Amino acid sequence: MAINFPPTTGQATDGSFTYTAAGVTWEWDGVTWKSRGSTDSYSLPIAGASTLGGVKVGNNLSITSGGVLSATASATDLDSLTDVTLTSPSNGQVLSYNGSAWVNAAGGSGGGATVLNDLTDTVVSNPDNTHVLRYDGTQWINGVVQKIDAAAVTQPAAAHRVAFTSDAIGAQTIFNDTAFLYYPQSGLISGPSNVLQTRDTVSYTVVGSLDSIANTFEVNAASTYALLKIETNIAAWVTLYVDAASRTADAARVETADPTPGSGVIAEVITSGAATQLITPGTIGFNNDSPTASAVYIKAVNKSGLTNDLTVTLTYVKLEA
User: Fold this and answer.
1) Phi-psi category of 10—alpha, beta or left, where left has phi over 0 and alpha has psi -120 to 50?
2) What string of DSSP letters covers 11-30?
3) Whole-prediction pTM value?
4) Residue range 72-78: average pLDDT?
5) Domains in the chain: how many in total?
């Protein structure tokens, strides 16, 4: 059975303040109620919604002399919190942490720039649906994609033209000494349909060539070329060189000795009569003069056994002007 003791605030603690319940007299010693004649303490049950009992009185909780219990909040407003400092708050302000406390400060949009032109490195002027954003070396600006006006382009030298054609559109890409320009329509600028070289031939005839005598001469072909064939009209030993010095240095070599690597010999053939010798695999020949020229240096020895006109014909493809 729970006992409803009277309030003890301000009462004597020497045992003279008593309370009798159910035939038992209790006296107050300043700490707890004790039954008279007993040294034991009586512990009140914990008070509940339907149970009489005791409660602890501590921080933010108090009880009146009439036994009325009340609670007070530790902070009743934002500024009462220990880690918040408010100074003249106004509409639109937000609570911002400054590293040590929460303080009131002006509110921001929270998202930085909301339009492209608000960026510090971007300038947009009168944009439309044909514009792109490009960097001019200092900042980003809007503008149209630059187009090539074919009529305003200076006709490039023929040697500098590189044209790519299509049966569908006949487009051309042409180098104008500075850059490659693309022309989407055929006929804007005339030029070669392609840049591949066709094979060519060059011949030289030694009139009245003595038997077993070396004849030296040059033919005009290309600075660099792909050698495909060497043709003779009679039996002959024919050697091609990169320059006159290499030909002179090789003059004492006999027919049965191979030229040494790096001696300047491009190719040589020995025929037993009128014949065409295929050069397989193909050989790259070049002129080693300074400045570079298009001459091919040749030595041809008549092996027919008689004095005859000796004709040497080269078939080649030009690789360098």
Assistant:
1) left
2) --SSS--EEEETTEEEEE-S
3) 0.43
4) 73
5) 3
